[in-house]
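Run log, item B.
One chain of 264 residues. Sequence copied directly from the ordering sheet:
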Amino acid sequence: MKRTIRTVALGLTLVASTATAQDMMRDVNLSSPDMVMAEMTRQDVEAMLARATATAPADFTAKRLSGLDLSGLDLSNAVFRAARLNKTRLAGAKLEGAVLDQAWLLAADLTGANLKRANMFAAQMVGARLDGADLSGARIAADLTGASLVGASIAGARLGADMRNQSMGLMRAVLKSANLERLNASGADLSRVDLEFASMKGADLTGASLKGAQLGGADLTGVTLIDTDFDGADLASAKLIAPVGLDRARNFDMAKNRDRLIKQ
């Protein structure tokens, strides 16, 4: 009976989390034991991984794993729904196909991690480090404000808002003030994504969609824009210096505030 109650409570929590996904930290005590302490050790995690199978992947739903060193582990297809992974070390970890929906990864270290086709819906990743990480093909509707993705790949990833399923509010990635230098975003869906004040120097946006994206104050110096769709993108005060392939971008004339671009 207790387990049923806990399951129902978790379900209600996840619904509430989804409803306020980009606003979850407003009433959360980030210094509470629930957010900074771990209830498992690395050895415990490894034991669960050893018992996992292709049909029953390791399930860490709602587990407190903050601060652990899980670097280098193979966590492919593992479920971390609503788990706490704040300041957890996941450098070089394999998280291909992992479920990180509603997970907390504040200031987590995912340097060089493999996150191909992972799901990060409503994840809280403020200040996370993903330099050199591979997120190609991933679903990323996460808050990555102030995160670092230098040299990372989001090729073919979906970060944009799915306007067919927005009953809970606008769900899309937030990359405000993020470091996206040399990011491979080729073919990525960045429609309606918040990229305000992000540094995107040298990023590859070939074939990416920036429809309705917020790019106010973003640094687009040296970006590759071949076949990039700017329909409805807001470029107020964005730096567009020495871009590559701007003449081959799509719908640039449909972007907002082009007269307020900073050019050289």
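Observations after the first pass:
- The first helix runs from residue 2 to 19.
- The first strand starts at residue 119 and ends at 124.
Flagged for discussion on Thursday.
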